[in-house]
Amino acid sequence: MQIYNTLSGKKEEFEPLNPPDVTFYMCGPTVYDLFHIGNGRSFIMSDIFRRYLIYKNYNVKFAMNLTDIDDRIIQKSIDQKIGSDKVADEFTKAFFDDIKKLKVKEADIYPKATEHIQEIIELIKQLELKNLAYESNGDVFFDVSKFPGYGKLSGKKLDELESGARVEVNDAKRNPLDFALWKKAKAGEPFWESPWGNGRPGWHIECSAMSMKHLGESIDIHGGGNDLIFPHHENEIAQSEGASGKQFAKYWMHFGFLNINKEKMSKSLGNFFTAREILNRHSAEALRLLFLQTHYRGPLNYSEDLLESAARGAEKISNYYRLLKEKLSDSSEGKPFDIDLDAFKIKFEAAMDDDFNTPQAVAVLFDLIKSTNKQLTEENSLNQSSLNEVLGFMKASAIDVFGIISEQENQPVRSGLDDQLIRLLINVRTEAKLDKNYTLADKIRDGLTALGISLKDGKEGTTYNIN
Element (H or E) spanning 61, and its range? Predict the structure, then answer.
């Protein structure tokens, strides 16, 4: 199994520190607002990687942090005239609501920065003792000039770096690239007591302290968006390895940007959709499949057309899975499937083992559907053992790893639509097709799909199923 390691700039054989155990830390949200689907891409893809490692029989311990004290949280609390803890609580709840709807499996640990203040203080004290940190009027900074490996993740050279948009300029620093470990409290801000006075932790030190407490001083995988490589992850390496003297993370994985009109989706540019907005129009399965169809390291240009196409693909996979189950309940000792299922399994795993090549792995599933769909629909009776094998592979891949099929059947319609209204929409769609108004027909079908209602056209008319 090969994973591209940002640290080395190449694919490497995946060899955990203590197999079959795998420690995996993922940078989570700063809980000051709803997260957008660019963030959602990182959350979903790391979820899929974790699921695949479990598929490969690794024991994965997965942690995703919550940054619940931050300049943006404080600013929102000032704007709304409420406590910063209230802001963090509101959007922490929103985060959990939204990732559940996106079918992201719960992490083993969700450490919060405010619950690890003592660990953060102890880590800063270690850095002071090693002469890697210095105090300046109540602030504490990491001295990047004292860490020889600074820049090894991002490829940046210390003597060429200048303070930029993401590097806080502060006259109290010895070097403009030195970063805050502890920030002196300003009037009206939340604070904690420390050896350097009242204050709060810097952003970077939070992740190091939480990862080291829950996963150990050295971990297998650390993940996050491309925008975190510098300075956040670079600084994590410096302070973690500076304190422990050990390699912090063996494999660094980074997720490509989600773009709109070839620009990175971000809140600062204002060109973003929240996950909650998208889920009001489309299913989680459609969004997950959209992300799966582009390699995780590359950019992905978002459009409604692409998402609607992914919705149709997810519907096709779901319909195939449901038909397998229907045939299984009807079959006895009929004909076996005329396929070599092992060959599909091998191709699926080969794709995923090649740095999680999900586009190729998804293509394997569609090839399987194409190869068996005719036999599945035309044969009255199929061998149960053969059906079970295909069903088992589809469950393991499309459900357990990808999360693009829902096994739940006969669930209440999420929108509250009753049968009569669904039938009315189906009739309007049928009339639109007769009038060759395929745009309207597709819009009705995709809208119903997003609400968890899949349509099936047949000789006797259109039927629906609630996913």
Answer: strand 59-64
**What φ, ψ does residue 454 adopt, rounded to 5°?**
-100, 140
Residue 354 half-sphere exposure toward CB, CA atoms < 13 A:
12
Task: Name the 3-class secondary structure at 6.
Answer: coil
pTM, 2 dp = 0.84
**Do residues 240 and 341 both lie within one domain?**
no
Q: Which amino acid is at 424?
A: L
Let me know if residue 82 belongs to a domain.
Answer: yes
d(CA 222, CA 27): 8
The CATH number given to whatever domain includes residue 177 is: 3.40.50.620
What's the helix, strand, coil split of the chain in %, to 5?
50, 20, 35
The residue written with tokens 């990808």 in the block is 402
Residue 449's pLDDT band, with cuts at 50, 70 and 90, is: confident
Q: Could you tell me the residue range of the domain that residue 380 belongs to?
A: 304-401
Residues 457 and 328 in one domain: no
Q: How far apart are CA 92 and CA 95, in angstroms?
A: 5
Sorting pLDDT into bands at 50, 70 and 90, what band is 408?
A: low
Whether residue 184 sits in one domain with residue 106: yes
- At residue 122, φ and ψ (nearest 5 deg) are -65, -35
Q: What is the pLDDT of residues 363-387, one digit of tens each?
A: 999 999 999 988 888 776 678 888 8
* Listed residues 357, 373, 401: the one ending a domain: 401
Same domain flag for 315 and 275:
no
More confident call, 410 vs 403 = 403
Number of domains, the chain: 3
